[in-house]
Amino acid sequence: MASAIAAFAAGTPTRPYLQNVTGTSATLVWSSPGVAGPVEFGPEAGPFTMIAPQASFFPAAATGLPQGIYLHQVELTGLSPRTTYRYRVAGSFLPAKFRTPGSGHSRILAFGDSGAETDEQRQLAARMTAREPDLILHTGDLVYPAGDADTYLRKYFGLYQDLFATAPAFPCPGNHDYYADQGHMFVEFNRVPRESVPEEGYGRYYSFDWENAHIAVIDSNAPLEEAAAGRGPMLDWLDRDLATSQAYWRIVMFHHPPYAGGPNQDDPLCALVRRHVVPILERHQVDLVLSGHEHNYQRTYPLNGIVYLTTGGGGASIYPTMPRQEARVQRARHHFLEAQLEPTALTVQAIGLDGQAFDTLRLAPKPRLSGPAASAAYPAAGMAPGGLATVMGRSLAPSEVRGESGSGANSGVRVLVNGLPAAVLYANANQVNFRVPAVALGPGMLRIETANGAVDLACDIAPTAPALFPGLFDDAGRQVTTESPAAAGSRLTAFFTGLGQGSSISGQVGGAEVAVDVLPVAAQPGLHRVSFTAQAAGEFLLFVDGRASNAIPVSVAR
What we know:
Blueprint: H1 4-10, E1 17-19, E2 26-32, E3 39-43, E4 49-51, E5 54-58, H2 60-63, E6 69-76, E7 84-89, E8 96-99, E9 106-111, H3 119-130, E10 135-138, H4 149-158, H5 161-164, E11 169-171, H6 184-189, E12 206-210, E13 213-217, H7 222-228, H8 234-244, E14 249-253, H9 268-283, E15 288-291, E16 297-300, E17 307-311, E18 327-331, E19 335-341, E20 346-352, E21 357-363, E22 368-369, E23 374-375, E24 388-394, E25 401-402, E26 413-417, E27 420-427, E28 431-435, E29 442-450, E30 453-461, E31 467-468, E32 490-497, E33 505-509, E34 512-514, E35 517-520, E36 527-534, E37 538-544, E38 547-548, E39 552-554
Parallel strand pairs: 9-10, 10-11, 13-14, 14-15, 15-17
Antiparallel strand pairs: 1-2, 2-6, 3-4, 3-7, 5-6, 7-8, 9-19, 12-13, 16-17, 16-18, 19-20, 20-21, 22-24, 23-24, 24-28, 25-27, 26-27, 26-29, 27-28, 29-30, 31-32, 32-36, 33-34, 33-37, 35-36, 37-38, 37-39
Helix pairs in contact: 8-9
């Protein structure tokens, strides 16, 4: 198809483009001057299923086109990870294919400042399409000079139609995307995730998981200005979003680079990013940041653990680079980035118009710990032989693993206590739960080993270190709370770890001694059940060989 406008004149729909692909779902979007037929969809080797699209109409007055257009959308659900699917709009185009994530390995392309309809943009588009990516990231300024409907359809969705038909594109808005109606058509044409995003941010900032990477995309235009002035929620949202991610990789993308040297380096929005965004990125130990705006390529040194890549050479005129102390590599070249995402390594190459790499970055983060090892039940408590313990950090396990895993080999992380292997019970990028070896005792060393290296931490294994898990339950299994107290005389149960070598066990509620019964939990060695009869409200404490546990509240109805 020569252009979207030519397609309108011929009365045929523009080619569908993929949006918001996950392991189990995907969105197809396309435009046409009239109604469209159903989508034929199915697995690569299976039969097609017919799905009717939903449509939104945009009149000519809203788009600047000679006539109104329909924007069609189909939601594909019930997909399987690591699976190739094919689709087409009935009666038009050959089937296209895409693959859902879930294999643990993906090819990701990233580029920005592209939509100028230049020969360089077309050359790079052909290069990128030939590489058959799984995922596409765009760092903003999708089109020039402004983000109106005509320009998006010709210079972005039309020019990249073959690329976007087979891999989902996740963009962030640049300043040129705002130059027409404050980015309204950017929001309308791009179906990005909305989960957890405040309504005023829909379509402008968002996050998603791809393989074992969490990618957060923010809008460094008006939403940043509003948030920096205390009137908008985006920065608070970013802080919460990164804090709750358990993914191994954390990647953040926005248009205005904080450390790139060039004609835009004094842009006030770049200064706002440095002042308000960078501290959040550092607090949550982000691995990689992608930006555009400067029409060239730049890579910083690791700055407080973060590498910042500027990829603004996607097709618009190239800007000269200017010296900056944070910059390790600067190239005034048209280019795109190709990243190979693996469970514990990320390799990024900058690819020029000739198809050759002119810079390579490889990230393979070593494990980092953020505090001492502690009881799995209570962070302030110690550890005892055979007890359950936790260590927190970053770049630990490449994926979430539940269930006992010997010394941890199956989880991608290995735990040693005083040189003895500890069984890993749960692991993710930020946390490892393990069982202390039954024979470990005294001061020593905890070692966490991963594919990228090891980290050591001094520890001390006490003969006993009782620690109660939160939660108290009656005989019916109902949790006892202030709102749902136990009846006087009820038999209540709590769970604890850290019995270790202890033998003398007693309990107290509100300072008064209570008789306790203790039994091991057969399904989870290192975990014990303690039961007692509650007559009055107070705090329950467990004593093992005179050492007190943490306290948990006991609520009893009057």
